Structure formats: structure tokens, C-alpha cells
Amino acid sequence: MEKFPKMTSRFAHVLTGFLVILFLASPVLAHAGEGPRHHMMMHGGPVGFLLLHQDDLGLNHEQVVKLSRIKMDFFKIMIMERARIKVLKLQNMMLMMHRGFDTAKARENNEQILSHKKKIMDGCVRMLSEAGKTLTPEQFEKAKKLMRQMIVMHHEMMMHQAMMSHS
Description:
- The protein is mainly α.
- It has helices spanning 9-30, 35-42, 45-52, 54-57, 61-95, 103-134, 137-165.
- The chain is flat and about 65 Å long.
- The termini are far apart.
């Protein structure tokens, strides 16, 4: 019994080309429209922002240690869950290489992908809650003010870039 069905040469080339384009475009499409929150997550997230501004916020050593632990605990979850998501996506791609593939298995993989994404989102909520409890009320208010300033600066920079690209 053959593992892969025989395909016409033209069909094989078209399918291969499509999968190559899909594979190359998927990282770009996966991050499209993620904006400043995605950028911030890539640089340590909101807890990384707090650690970056530890002097401005007046964080003591114990707070810095606790925030660093909170950030690393979340990053471990995020890295592992994203890896599991990638494996499931690869399994779906392999399924779809066959004519009449098992759609029930693909849907099951999709449900698992959603479950792993939920674990990341729940981890983010837990991280933010723990980080907020680590700060004093005054530090928390100052952090919100710094965050608003950063968002306004980012927005102004994006508006400037948009205006420059249209001139």
C-alpha cells in the first residue's frame, strides 16, 4: 500500500508551490495587525516595561526579584504553548497534504490549538494580576501614567510615519 497517492506532475508542482507560499507567508500573517501590544510582548511585556522603568517607579530589590520571576514564569508558559501550537499546525498541514484527509482529526487539532492559546491568555492574566499586587498603589498609578505616555508617543510616531509615507 502506498503512503502517498500518485499525483500528476502539474498538480504536484501547484500544490508544492502553494504550500511553500503558505509556509513562507504564515509568520507574516500570524503577526499582521498585532501592533504595539505585540511589540511590547516581544520586549518583556508589561512586566518587562515595569522592570525597564524600575528606577522611575522606585522599585525595591524584592519587587524587582519578584517581578523578574513573574515574567520568567509567564515566558516559560508562552514558549511551551507556542511550540505545541506550531506542532499542531504542522500536523494539520501534513493531514491536508492528502486528498480526503481526516477532517475530524484536523478539527481536534484546532480545538487543541485554541486550548493552548487559552493557556497563554490565562497565564497573561495571572502575570498581570501578580505584577499589580507587587506594586504599591502609588507605583501602580505611576506605571499607568508611564504606560499612557508610551502609548501616546507610539501613536504619534505611527501617525508621523503614515504622513511621511503619503508625501
